[in-house]
Design goal:
With 289 residues, the chain is α/β, with parallel strands linked by helices. Helix content is 28%, strand content 29%. It has nine helices and 14 strands. The strands form three sheets. Strands 6-7-8-3-9-10 form a six-stranded mixed beta sheet, with helices on both faces. A four-stranded antiparallel beta sheet has the order 2-1-4-5. Strands 12-13-11-14 form a four-stranded antiparallel beta sheet, with no helix packed on it. Strand 12 (241-246) and strand 13 (250-257) form a beta hairpin. Bound molecules: adenosine-5'-triphosphate. The site of adenosine-5'-triphosphate has 12 residues, from helix 1. InterPro entries: AAA+_ATPase (IPR003593), ABC_transporter-like_ATP-bd (IPR003439), ABC_Transporter_VariousFunc (IPR051782), P-loop_NTPase (IPR027417). Pfam families: ABC_tran (PF00005). One of its GO terms (molecular function) is ATP binding.
């Protein structure tokens, strides 16, 4: 359990302020979403103890940084965005090095990490010789060293290819049950099947924290899919149109509306991204029509 209480954090070099009155993050995968500059990376850096609040308290299973910083850090895995790794080290040496910082590797742990993150063929290669996506896999692998209770991932899918994204999201899902995993992302679709909670940040403030069911419920409009003749999408306002899939002589539409927009349309399941779109428009007072 991760608790924040009256936390305020100000960026020295900008006027940005993060403010969280009270927030308790539960185990499982929390998707941290919000626009550019909302404060997602800042929040993850705070949670990972890479920086500290100006005021307020963060508790990790009851532990606080003022007395238990080393013990807390030993229980955290963190992958910042744009992480830079030691270029001259080999993959194996780098993972061993990170493990040393956390008290050493358990039996079989190195092999498990190398296998889980598909790093076998790169184990003896220096970081500087690796493709971006492979470097990212090394960065992600180190976050699981010592089986941390808290894992913070800042846009972890960056640079991963399509198959590795699928593999990684499944891996996180399989290894998040007893952990608190917070994932900052702009790619909600790829986490759709695996997310447990959503945390929506705007202007340094949490606007929503709840289960994915709560995130997609109680919204002012519904999602509909239907097929229209070519050009038929023009009767919808731009704010209503979520997706146009061109077919031979018709278009398949995905639209927002309070009621069924016409014959040929049927209700569609609301995705996390649909709900994000609706909530952002509602917050800023933008109409759908
Ligand atoms: N190192 C820094 N020094 C000063 N200000 C910073 C620094 N990093 C970020 N900021 C500012 O803090 C605010 C929040 O940035 P942050 O990177 O946390 O947002 P974000 O939600 O992660 O954005 P994005 O989706 O673009 O990654 C922004 O106004 C940004 O300009």
């Amino acid at each position: 359990m991760l608790e924040m209480h009256q936390v305020v954090y100000r960026r020295q070099a900008s006027s940005f302020e993060l403010s969280v009155q009270r927030l308790t993050l539960k185990p499982g995968i929390t998707l941290l979403v919000g626009p550019n500059g909302a404060g997602k990376s800042s929040l993850l850096q705070l949670l990972a103890t890479a920086c500290f609040p100006d005021s307020g308290i963060i508790r990790y299973d009851g532990l606080g940084v003022e007395r238990d910083l080393a013990a807390i850090r030993a229980r955290i895995g963190f992958v910042p965005s744009g992480v830079e790794l030691y270029e001259q080290m080999t993959v194996t040496k780098l993972l061993r090095y990170f493990a040393e910082l956390k008290g050493g590797l358990a039996a079989g742990e190195l092999e498990w990490l190398i296998e889980s993150f598909h790093l076998g063929e790169y184990r003896s290669r220096k970081i500087k010789t690796l493709a971006q996506g492979v470097r990212q896999r090394v960065a992600l692998a180190q976050a699981w060293i010592a089986s941390p209770s808290f894992i913070f991932l800042d846009e972890p899918l960056n640079a991963l290819d399509t198959l590795e994204r699928l593999h990684f999201t499944r891996f996180v899902a399989a290894h998040s049950r007893s952990r608190t995993v917070v994932v900052s992302t702009h790619e909600m679709n790829e986490w759709e099947a695996w997310a447990d909670h959503v945390l929506w940040f705007e202007d340094g403030i949490p606007y929503f924290y709840g289960t994915v069911e709560e995130w997609t419920a109680g919204l002012p409009v519904s999602v509909w899919t239907g097929s229209v003749v070519k050009g038929g999408h023009r009767r919808f306002a731009p704010g209503q149109l979520l997706h146009i899939l061109p077919e031979d002589d018709r278009d398949e539409l995905r639209v927002l509306d309070e009621q069924c927009p016409g014959s040929g349309f049927e209700p569609a399941l609301m995705t996390l991204e649909d709900a994000y779109f609706i909530r952002c428009r509602s917050r800023t007072g933008l109409a759908y029509r």
